[in-house]
TrEMBL record:
Organism encoding this protein: Meleagris gallopavo
Keywords: Chondrogenesis, Developmental protein, Secreted, Signal
SUPFAM superfamilies: Cystine-knot cytokines (SSF57501)
Family the UniProt entry places it in: Belongs to the noggin family.
Gene: LOC100548577
Any one GO CC term of the record: extracellular space
Any Pfam family hit: Noggin
Protein name as catalogued: Noggin
Superkingdom of origin organism: Eukaryota
Chain segments carrying region Disordered: 24-57
Signal peptide start and end residues: 1-21
GO biological process, one term: cartilage development
PANTHER family registered for this protein in UniProt: BONE MORPHOGENETIC PROTEIN INHIBITOR, NOGGIN, NOGGIN
Subcellular location: Secreted
Length: 239
């Protein structure tokens, strides 16, 4: 048996009856380093990428981008019009966000439509599984609901975030990277399960893209919209 149901059953069998739930802390493992490629954004410009794009996998190394936009290409008003309604101030910023190092302490699940929907989906799933469990017959009736609530809260996987500078070839260049919160208490008992990304959402960003129609012909550059995946929900699982 895998997933949150396994986690919840293990809680019930091996833990003493708790008086109240504990809250996870804000510790976080560093995000995996992005890979490098000679053309980091070209595959994102296709109508249907050949493979799903992993979140935060684009290279952030300036050496991987041979051409950068000039100041005349970086007029905020024009770029805002190009991006249109895809601009979301929760996820992106053209300037370095104030207090960006404190973002891990925010209650993220209530601050964005994508996070509200993603977190709500897995909370409802956990409640369905918990309500379908058989509790010990000796458990007092007035303790059943608090126990179920504690099990759900313990198995929930919350998010943390940090602002990342993508560099001058992206606009907005500052994007919020979300990740599954780690650290004690674990989401399973006995230990062995952990929080992993379960749902992605795709933002829209502008990327500075350059190409030559017929090499060695003249170089053409323009801002193009690209999808940018971010984590919007996590779940407790073995992998």
């Amino acid at each position: 048996m895998q997933g949150p149901r396994c986690c919840l059953l293990l809680f019930l069998c091996l833990l003493p009856l708790p008086l109240h739930a504990t809250s996870p802390d804000d510790s976080q493992k560093p995000l995996p380093l992005p890979f490098s490629t000679s053309d980091p954004t070209a595959h994102l410009l296709r109508g249907r990428p050949s493979a799903p794009v992993r979140p935060y996998s684009l290279s952030l190394s300036p050496e991987d981008y041979r051409y950068a936009p000039k100041p005349r290409h970086l007029r905020p008003g024009r770029l805002r019009r190009l991006l249109g309604p895809a601009f979301d101030p929760f996820w992106m910023s053209s300037e370095e966000p104030l207090g960006r190092n404190l973002s891990a302490k925010e209650d993220l699940e209530t601050m964005s439509r994508e996070l509200v929907e993603g977190g709500g989906r897995y909370r409802r799933k956990l409640w369905r599984e918990v309500e379908g469990m058989e509790l010990p017959p000796e458990l007092p009736a007035d303790m059943a609901r608090p126990l179920r609530r504690w099990l759900v809260e313990r198995a929930l996987c919350r998010l943390t975030s940090t602002w990342v500078d993508l560099g001058p070839v992206f606009w907005p260049r500052w994007v919020r990277h979300t990740a599954c919160r780690t650290g004690p208490p674990a989401c399973s008992w006995p230990l062995g399960m952990a929080c992993h990304p379960a749902q992605l959402a795709h933002l829209k960003l502008l990327a500075w893209h350059c190409w030559a129609a017929r090499p060695p012909g003249p170089l053409h550059c323009a801002w193009r919209k690209i999808p940018y995946p971010v984590v919007v929900a996590c779940k407790c699982s073995c992998r």
